[in-house]
Design goal:
InterPro entries: CDP-OH_P_trans, CDP-OH_PTrfase_TM_dom, CDP_ALCOHOL_P_TRANSF_CS. Helices cover 74% and strands 0% of the residues. It has 251 residues and is mostly helical. Helix 4 (84-111) packs antiparallel against helix 9 (204-210). The N and C termini lie far apart (75 Å).
C-alpha cells in the first residue's frame, strides 16, 4: 500500500505581521485627501483588513460587512426617534462601515485579488450610502418632529451635493486614467497638509461622528448644516477645477 504524505499545515500569520505587510502594500495616499480619511480611517481600515485576512475573508465579503454596518445605521436614522443612544449607535455603525470600506481594498492589494467587479461593487455601495444617508435622516427628523420643517432642506441639499461630488470624483479619475494622467492629489503640490485640513468639513468620516450630537437635535442640525454647506461649496469649487483640467485634455 502506498503511503499518503501528510498535507502541510498552513500556519496563520501573526496579526502584527499582517498589519506590517498591509502598511507596505498600501497604495500611496492622496496627499490632498481630507485629514480624517487620510490619517485615521486608513489606519482603522488596516487593522480591520488584517483581521479579515486572518479569517480568510475575500475583499467582496469585507465590502458586504461594510454595507451591512453602514445601512444598519442609515435604517436606524429613519426608524428610531433621535436620542443620545441612537446617535452613539449610528455613529459607531457608520464609522465601522467606513473603516471596512477602506479595508476591502487593502485586502485586495494584499492578496492580489482585486478586480473590476470588486471596484464596481465598492463604488455602488458608496453611491447608495451617499444618497440614502441624508434622505433617511430627513425622514427620521420629519417623522419624529425633531426640528422645524425648514431644516429639512439641509438633508435634501446634502443628498444632491454628496451625489454630485462623488460622481464628479469618479468620472474625473476615470478620464484621467484614459488620458494616462496621474491624479494631482497623488503627485502632490503645494501645502498638501493644508489641503487635508481645509477639506475636513467635507470628510465623510467627520460626518459620521457628527451623529453623536443627535440627542440634541437643534445643535445637531446646526452643525450638520455647516458640514453640508462646506460640502456644497467644495463641490462647486471642485467642479470648476475639474472642468478646466478636463478641457486641457482635448488640447
Amino acid at each position: 500500500m502506498t503511503e499518503v504524505e501528510p498535507r502541510p499545515v498552513r500556519t496563520r500569520e501573526p496579526y502584527r505581521d499582517t498589519v506590517r505587510r498591509l502598511a507596505d502594500a498600501q497604495k500611496q495616499a492622496a496627499r490632498g485627501a481630507p485629514a480624517y480619511s487620510r490619517f485615521v480611517n486608513r489606519r482603522l481600515g488596516r487593522l480591520l483588513a488584517a483581521w479579515a485576512y486572518g479569517r480568510g475573508l475575500t475583499p467582496n465579503q469585507v465590502t458586504g460587512l461594510s454595507a451591512l454596518a453602514t445601512f444598519a445605521g442609515i435604517a436606524l436614522l429613519a426608524l428610531v426617534e433621535p436620542s443620545w443612544w441612537l446617535g452613539a449607535l449610528v455613529a459607531a455603525l457608520l464609522v465601522l462601515g467606513y473603516a471596512l470600506d477602506s479595508a476591502d481594498g487593502q485586502v485586495a492589494r494584499l492578496t492580489g485579488t482585486g478586480s473590476p467587479a470588486g471596484e464596481w461593487l465598492d463604488h455602488m455601495v458608496d453611491a447608495t450610502k451617499i444618497a440614502t444617508l441624508p434622505l433617511a435622516l430627513g425622514v427620521g427628523l420629519y417623522r419624529f418632529d425633531a426640528v422645524d420643517l425648514g431644516w429639512l432642506v439641509v438633508p435634501l441639499v446634502h443628498a444632491v451635493a454628496g451625489s454630485v461630488l462623488f460622481f464628479g470624483m469618479i468620472l474625473t479619475e476615470q478620464l484621467r486614467r484614459a488620458q494616462g494622467v496621474q491624479s494631482v492629489a497623488v503627485t502632490g503640490g503645494r501645502a498638501p497638509w493644508l489641503r487635508s485640513v481645509l477639506a475636513v468639513p467635507t470628510d465623510y468620516g467627520v460626518l459620521c461622528w457628527v451623529f453623536l450630537l443627535l440627542g440634541a437635535p437643534d445643535v445637531f442640525v446646526l452643525v450638520y448644516a455647516l458640514v453640508v454647506a462646506a460640502t456644497a461649496v467644495f463641490t462647486v469649487a471642485a467642479a470648476v477645477k475639474w472642468y478646466r483640467e478636463i478641457s486641457r485634455f482635448a488640447r
